[in-house]
Amino acid sequence: MDRAQKEQLVDELGQIFEASGVVVVAHYEGMTVAQMQDLRAQMREAGGSVRVAKNRLAKIALEGKPCASIADYLTGMTVLAFSEDPVAAAKVADKYAKGNDKFVILGGAMGDTALDPAGVKAVAQMPSREELIASIVGCIGAPASNIAGAIGAPASNIASILTTLEEREAA
Prior knowledge:
Blueprint (H helix, E strand, L loop, with lengths): L2 H17 L2 E6 L5 H13 L2 E4 L3 H8 L15 E6 L4 H12 L4 E7 L2 E3 L1 H8 L4 H42 L1
Antiparallel strand pairs: 1-3, 1-4, 2-3, 4-5
Helix pairs in contact: 1-3, 4-5
Organism: Paracoccus shanxieyensis
Protein name: Large ribosomal subunit protein uL10
Function: Forms part of the ribosomal stalk, playing a central role in the interaction of the ribosome with GTP-bound translation factors.
């Protein structure tokens, strides 16, 4: 890798560190290519990405970025999992770590907040952006459906009373 490629990689990593809602750092020593491809596929499905980069270049890219606190975790064979959604990468990484003992979460960052492994686990348990939007829409829509039900209730009550009266007359 020549100097121009290294500079390009540092720029790419810098953009990743700035744009990501969460960055998770983990060791992946001993993982097979198939396991790594599985992790990448799960992360892509959740809207995140996985990146393996040289620790030295990643540390250079971290300088001056909000998540610079993760530089301490960049030792050994590390992989970066990241996503724009502040929860997606943490959820996938935590789930994958439970099923694969060779994937060990070291920590991460959420904006300028440093996360230890317990912090990454806590972030993973938070609802995702889509889940929050769905619950807010549900809360907003519930009163409207209650009003519609209340407005429609007298008409259905009258219809049931009329049906009852018709049945009495027929009997």
